[in-house]
Amino acid sequence: MRNIRNEKNSITIAFLAAGLLAFAAVKADAQGSSSDVTMPMKFAITATYQADDVSSDTSPVTKHVTKTVKWTNQSLLALMATNGNGGVAFPKGSSIEFSAGSFLVLTDKQGDTTDVSSMLSVDNSGASVYTGQDNSDTSAFNYATSQYVTVSFDDGNGNSFTLTGMAKITSSATASTDKNGNSVAKVKEAYAVSFSGAGYGSVGGNQAVFTGTASGSGSYTQSNN
After folding, report:
1. How far apart are CA 100 and CA 96, in angstroms?
2. I want to staple 114 with a disulfide (CB 3.0 to 4.6 A). Which of 105, 121, 175, 213 is the partner?
3. DSSP code string of 39-54
């Protein structure tokens, strides 16, 4: 199995917050083979934007107004469809997926995807700390990581945000060998991430401030038979 100590952050963190989103996938090499760990993500974004001033010819008072909107996974899918899917709405049941460092939209059960990484991305180069342990003999591990990340979105039509905040990540894998060094029948890896951030952007071209969360979890079982 791979050296998780060096890869743990790039796996789940690639979030998004993000991972805003619905599936996050990470390539994993186990016993020389390649496999996917998928992580469904759920986004909840709140934007407060500057609306038009309210004034009257009969009053010297001008009222300055803000409005609030909430963006969910479905909201983001609708916004991204304009640019990322040629203006055609994504099929019902589509989800947002993180795979190998990029965001995709999973459009059907057959695994067809649309690349939306030009609109939705995550920067996980910020500082991180972690606790946990790993076993060099069996490749078993477990970690709890905290990392500062930035999640960015821009649909190219006046809707955008940049959120920065803390991501909490847990990751683990069962032993790939027994006490005698023999391969076990199955190895399970599990990951979970939660993110909370705040930032700025725009709604319909209007300046806005944002808060948001994203969370998800997933696991993969590798058969060694």
Report:
1. 13
2. 105
3. E-EEEEEEEEEE---E
The 10s digit of each residue's pLDDT in 132-166 is: 999 989 989 999 999 999 999 999 999 999 999 99
Question: Which is more confidently placed, 220 or 2?
Answer: 220
Q: What is the pLDDT averaged over residues 72-89?
A: 86
* pLDDT tens, position by position, 182-202: 899 899 988 888 999 999 999
Residue of 200, 205, 212, 198 lying closest to 159 (CA atoms): 205
Give me 125's structure tokens: 């180069």
Q: Are 166 and 195 in contact (CB under 8 A)?
A: yes
Angstrom distances, CA of residue 119 to CA of 33, 77, 208 = 32, 11, 18
In whole angstroms, give the CA distance from residue 8 to residue 147: 11
Q: Please state, in angstroms and rounded to a whole number, the distance separating the CA atoms of residues 8 and 179.
A: 25
Contact 169, 193 (CB under 8 A): yes
149 with 165: CB under 8 angstroms?
yes
Alpha-carbon distance 163 to 25, whole Å?
A: 21
CB-based burial label for 216 (10 Å; 0-12, 13-18, 19+): buried
DSSP, collapsed to helix, strand or coil, labels residue 111 as coil
